[in-house]
Amino acid sequence: MLVASVGNVLVWAVWIVAAFACLGSGVAVVSFSNPFYSALALIGNLGSLAVLYLLLSSEFVAAAQVLVYAGAVMVMFLFVIAYVGPRTESPWAGGPSWQAVGAVLAAAALLVEIIVVIGLKAGGRLAHSHHVSGSFGSPSYVGRLFLSDHLLAFEITSIVLLVAAIGGVILGAHSRQAAGEVPPL
Amino acid sequence: MTVAAYGAWICLLSPLAAAGLITLAGGRLSRRGSGYLASLACFVAFGGALTTFISLLGRSGSQRTAVSTAWTWISGGSYRSGFEVMIDPLSVFMMLVVAGVGALIVAYSIGYMDGDDEERRYFAYMSLFVFSMLLLVQGGNLLLLLAGWGMVGLSSYLLIGFWHDRPSAIAAAKKAFVMNAIGDATMALAFFLLIKKAGSLDFGILGGEYSSTVANLVALGLLGGAVAKSAQLPLQTWLPDAMEGPTPVSALIHAATMVTAGVYLIVRTHAIFEQAPKVADLAAGLGAGTLLLAGLIALVQVDIKRVIAYSTMSQIGYMFLGVGLGAYANGMFHLMTHAFFKALLFMAAGIVIHALAAEQDIRKMGGLRRLMPRTYLAFLIGSLALVGIFPFAGFFSKDSILAAAMDHGAYGYILWVAGLAGTFLTGLYTFRLLFLVFWGEPSPFVREHFHALKPDVPGVSLAAPVAVLAVLSVIGGWIQWAPLWHPVETWLQTVAEPTVSPTSWQEAVSSILALLLGLGGISLAFLYYGARRLAVPRFAFPQRVLEHKFYFDELYDALFYRPAVWSAKTLHRWIEGPLISDSARELGDDARDLGGLVSHLQTGLLRTYALAIASSVAVLAIVFVAVK
Amino acid sequence: MMGPGTAWYLSVAGFLFAVGSLGVLLRRNPLIVLLSLEIMLNGANLALITFARHLDNGDGQIFALAVMAVAASEVVVGLGLIVALNRKRVPLDVDRLSSLRG
């Protein structure tokens, strides 16, 4: 009982830290003027999300999140941001335009709706979660699912990755003409 | 298929094949080559007609009717029409005339149209016309006759307006077509009535019994079509204008064949006319009226082709007179001889026009007798045949029509007098033309512009058909001299039994009187124009009336054209403009404005579109939540 | 399940999604827009994993992995476009990239 309650408190504490880190870094990504800082904030976001996944017994996904997202994708982001150079842009300058007002309203509406759904509508069904086995988020579990029930998704995902890789190569290739031949938009 | 049927189909389809080939070959065929092809096709058609004729000769009278069907063309409900060809004495008679004279005229055109830029189009149209006319006379039912009827109207339009850079030619073509269309409409109405009453348009129904109202209406409709096609009163105004076309066209279409289609129609449907005697009398009366009217107008014409055109109008009046009275064989016989000498006159006139560098005003001509002796001879033969002097062709055919008029009671005698007066007028205007053009001293114009025919291909092609027709104008009438021997009447008897039979005494009186009056007209013309003994009398008022062609054109202009134009303009201004065009335009403007408003949504900015998506998701989420 | 219940995790996911959409709609630098897009995708991923845990169904994890792969591909292409734009000296501002204006 005490172990359970201590465990519970521990989980709650970790959860609170991770959740706030997640939310804070999310707001930071949107708010920083310097894209470099935004990217760093996103890395923090991804890390805290990985912690949340661990709390949800999805170990493999958490590992994949750190390795793929934070490790590969964000590194790519940082490379490009470094290449493009410093472009700062303040999102809140110039007073609230109708675009800004509309955006805030839309985002707020989404948030409110989600809360309402979670709280009022689906509250009963969200109360009791199932008990999961120890191997719920293990690589073997996920791997078996990928290769049996969701084989098609697996294959298609790999094709998508291939296409993206080819696209990336083409887009990034140097064109053979001289620079500056296309007039700016 | 029997030999006769083969001949008939070859006759019908050969000119169509030529028209098609000339059209498809286009520039690959030389200009003169198209002329040879068209002439060859017409001669082949004549051969086919001749074959059918000889084959029919070998049969006895009642065996001479046959229908050869190619396929069923229309079949709807209880109505059925086949694409069929009628082989009987009447159709063979017309086939021979149309194909024979047609072949000669198309051959003549090789020389006449030599050098014209659009010769191939001309020969394609001429072949199309010959096919259409053959379809008309050979059609095995009234529907095909109507099809041929319409197509000859079309070919006439195309050929009158052949020199399409002349506004007068285009206007004349339109006039001819519109007036023919009036006739087509009345004929169609008559056919509708026939379908309703008899259920079919085969020739067999013509012998059925109809109530007098129906018979009168149908006959009136048919008469309307005949009057329009044959340029009789009151639809005669298009024929003189049609002289805008090339001379061979005038010879073929507006002398020998198309304008005689009305006469053929009446003979073919004579059974209906016999059930509607008042309409038949009307036909005869219109013929007599036209005969006199045209003869009078011809006295003051100064264009060589227009004189001959009015003469055509007048002679067809004779034919209408004949068939209206029931003398079908005589009418058809006159049709045949008229085709010979009228085509001859037109073609000789064509040679004169060619020799004088396209001049057609007879006041500028004169003294061509010594310069073109053979043409003069041909013209003389044609003129004598036209006036009806023994032993030329017109004598035998015209006089029997006049005799038939004597067998029709008092009304017949009125027509008889009109016919005799017409003979006098014919002599007068025909020889006025001959003397003015050929006699006297060569005018200054002639001395300056005359150039003779050369003996090359165009020259031969111009001269040979004229020679053939001259011979036919002499001997063509010898095929019937009622009442002594009448093979033509016997030939056509199975198809159209004449309802009048004048006695030999009446025939003799008519012949002698007509001959005397014709000679009288010639003498008067000689006195005025030939030897110039007497000055031509000038009466101002009659002269003016005749020159204005009895003001028919002005009358029709006021009665039909002006009201039509006025109503078109009014409708355009008050209804079409504000209601239709403007509303259509406003609709377009409104649509464009609406599009302009909507295009404000297309800012081109990514963020706007993203905002739209986000807002829509928010709204949809509310909807889903609320519905659930 | 120990710790917070499913509803708490879902609220976090919803908040992440809202913040991400705010960033997509408000920022003009395309790089930041892509980053915000990543946040939205991660919010969705969190919701998926949460439900997988709640219903003891591994499909959610599979779906989340697929989303991760697609997000990676999309980032590759998006960054390639930005690099190309930069090479052509086009200003990196989504408001200026409006040649499809109707």
Written overview of the protein:
The complex is a heterotrimer of chains A (185), B (628) and C (102). With 185 residues, chain A is mainly α. The longest helix of chain A is centred in the first third of the chain and has 30 residues, at 2-31. Chain A has a single domain, classed as Four Helix Bundle (Hemerythrin (Met), subunit A) (Up-down Bundle), CATH 1.20.120. Chain A has helices at residues 2-31, 35-55, 59-84, 98-121, 139-147, 151-172. Chain A is built from six helices and no strands. The N and C termini of chain A lie far apart (68 Å). With 628 residues, chain B is mainly alpha-helical. Chain B has a domain at 276-537. Chain B has helices at residues 3-25, 31-57, 89-112, 119-138, 142-160, 167-198, 212-229, 238-241, 247-256, 261-268, 270-275, 277-298, 304-325, 328-355, 368-371, 373-387, 393-405, 409-438, 444-449, 457-475, 487-493, 504-530, 540-547, 552-599, 606-627, and strands at 66-76, 79-87. Chain B has a two-stranded antiparallel ribbon with strand order 1-2. Chain C contains three helices and no strands. Chain C has helices at residues 6-26, 30-55, 59-87. The model of chain C has no long low-confidence stretch (mean pLDDT 89). In chain C, helix 1 packs antiparallel against helix 2 (30-55) and helix 2 (30-55) runs antiparallel to helix 3. Chain C has a domain at 30-90: Helix Hairpins (Orthogonal Bundle), CATH 1.10.287. With 102 residues, chain C is mostly helical. The chains are: A mainly alpha (185), B mainly alpha (628), C mainly alpha (102). At the A-B interface, helix 4 of A face helix 25 of B.
Short structural description:
With 628 residues, chain B is mostly helical.
Write the layout of secondary structure elements.
The complex is a heterotrimer of chains A (185), B (628) and C (102).
Chain A: H1 2-31, H2 35-55, H3 59-84, H4 98-121, H5 139-147, H6 151-172
Chain B: H1 3-25, H2 31-57, E1 66-76, E2 79-87, H3 89-112, H4 119-138, H5 142-160, H6 167-198, H7 212-229, H8 238-241, H9 247-256, H10 261-268, H11 270-275, H12 277-298, H13 304-325, H14 328-355, H15 368-371, H16 373-387, H17 393-405, H18 409-438, H19 444-449, H20 457-475, H21 487-493, H22 504-530, H23 540-547, H24 552-599, H25 606-627
Antiparallel strand pairs in B: 1-2
Helix pairs in contact in B: 1-2, 1-4, 2-3, 2-4, 3-4, 3-9, 3-14, 3-20, 4-5, 5-6, 6-7, 7-10, 7-12, 9-14, 10-13, 12-13, 12-18, 13-14, 13-17, 13-18, 14-16, 14-17, 14-20, 14-21, 16-18, 16-20, 17-18, 17-22, 18-22
Chain C: H1 6-26, H2 30-55, H3 59-87
Helix pairs in contact in C: 1-2, 2-3
